[in-house]
């Protein structure tokens, strides 16, 4: 239930042109690609309410596109964040009046939701900085999976959030991850394979021909006998992107319960390695570097 005291932000207008290669696809699916900073459910609501227009007119989420149409979205977000503050420790790497950069631990969910009503990063942020209740989503502009650790930036003002979301949409935010994968890879490369929801398992994503563009660049950092440490750089930011791409390449991330399958111990593994693999209860994925432009000064920021 929404809080009657919640006030909307002043609406902003976003515009885009439907690419020619989107011909034959649904309006809602293409809109989600054009504006990835918003959830599909929110975009669908805006289509139905007339806040998302196609060639200046209302359309239906299922309408088929030709390519070349103009899209206009009137963005209106509530300022009020409804989660409760909770005293959860946070590792802060940097902060000023506009942004907060944290090192998220593995095991911490970012947003409250079904199955995780509290105990999340949002709850922790609201305890540390109660003023974030007046910023949509408590200032969160991007996510990390529950069991992925690493660097995240949080906006402390609506102005900063708007600027960071625009950078993410324009792919001007650079993110590098460290991953340990199964198998001894001999070289790096690029995974360029579209991703969308798995056709049968709604908890998973999958490589699909009709999915959203997804590009992951990876290079070798260190090779082991049966595993490889990789540096992964995201060109896009799809849900579970690195995990899906590595599994697609038959080198799933170590400890990934969703895409890695049952634990397979390498032949000749030492007792120490066997113990480490059996007791490792998260995927071996860490967001180690985040680069963006400061939302007010415009200066480059690089956090590790």
Automatic annotation (TrEMBL):
Q: Does the keyword RNA-binding apply?
A: yes
Membrane-spanning residues = none
Matching InterPro entries, A to Z? PsdUridine_synth_cat_dom_sf, PsdUridine_synth_RluA-like_CS, PsdUridine_synth_RluC/D, PsdUridine_synth_RsuA/RluA, RluA_PseudoU_synthase, S4_RNA-bd_sf
User: Recorded E.C. number(s)?
Assistant: 5.4.99.-
| Superkingdom of source | Bacteria
Which GO terms fall under molecular function for this chain's record?
23S rRNA pseudouridine(1911/1915/1917) synthase activity; RNA binding
A single Pfam family it belongs to is PseudoU_synth_2
Q: Give the annotated active site.
A: 145
What catalytic reaction does the record list?
Answer: a uridine in RNA = a pseudouridine in RNA; uridine(1911/1915/1917) in 23S rRNA = pseudouridine(1911/1915/1917) in 23S rRNA
Which GO terms fall under biological process for this protein?
Answer: enzyme-directed rRNA pseudouridine synthesis
- What are the Pseudouridine synthase RsuA/RluA-like domain coordinates in residue numbering? 98-248
Keyword vocabulary terms for this entry: Isomerase, RNA-binding
Family under the similarity heading: Belongs to the pseudouridine synthase RluA family.
Q: Function of this protein?
A: Responsible for synthesis of pseudouridine from uracil.
Q: What is this protein called?
A: Pseudouridine synthase
| Species name | Xanthomonas vasicola pv. vasculorum NCPPB 890
């Amino acid at each position: 239930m929404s809080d009657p005291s919640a006030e909307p932000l002043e609406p902003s207008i976003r515009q885009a042109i439907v690419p020619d290669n989107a011909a034959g696809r649904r309006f809602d699916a293409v809109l989600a690609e054009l504006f990835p900073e918003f959830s599909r459910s929110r975009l669908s609501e805006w289509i139905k309410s007339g806040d998302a227009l196609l060639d200046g007119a209302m359309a239906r989420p299922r309408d088929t596109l030709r390519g070349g149409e103009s899209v206009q979205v009137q963005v209106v977000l509530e300022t009020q964040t409804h989660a409760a503050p909770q005293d959860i420790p946070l590792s802060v790497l940097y902060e000023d009046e506009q942004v907060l950069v944290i090192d998220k631990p593995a095991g911490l969910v970012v947003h409250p939701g079904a199955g995780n009503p509290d105990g999340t990063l949002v709850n922790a942020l609201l305890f540390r900085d109660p003023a974030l209740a007046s910023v949509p989503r408590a200032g969160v502009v991007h996510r990390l999976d529950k069991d992925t650790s690493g660097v995240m930036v949080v906006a402390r003002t609506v102005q900063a959030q708007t600027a960071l979301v625009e950078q993410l949409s324009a792919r001007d935010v650079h993110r590098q991850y460290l991953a340990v994968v199964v198998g001894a890879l001999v070289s790096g490369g690029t995974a360029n394979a579209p991703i969308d929801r798995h056709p049968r398992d709604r908890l998973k994503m999958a490589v699909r021909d009709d999915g959203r563009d997804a590009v992951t660049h990876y290079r070798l950092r260190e090779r082991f006998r049966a595993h490889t440490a990789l540096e992964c750089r995201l060109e896009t930011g799809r849900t579970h992107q690195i995990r899906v791409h590595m599994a697609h390449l038959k080198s799933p991330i170590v400890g990934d319960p969703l895409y890695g399958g049952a634990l397979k111990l390498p032949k000749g593994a030492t007792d120490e390695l066997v113990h480490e693999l059996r007791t490792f209860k998260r995927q071996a994925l860490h967001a180690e570097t985040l680069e963006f432009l400061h939302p007010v000064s415009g200066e480059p920021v690089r956090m590790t």
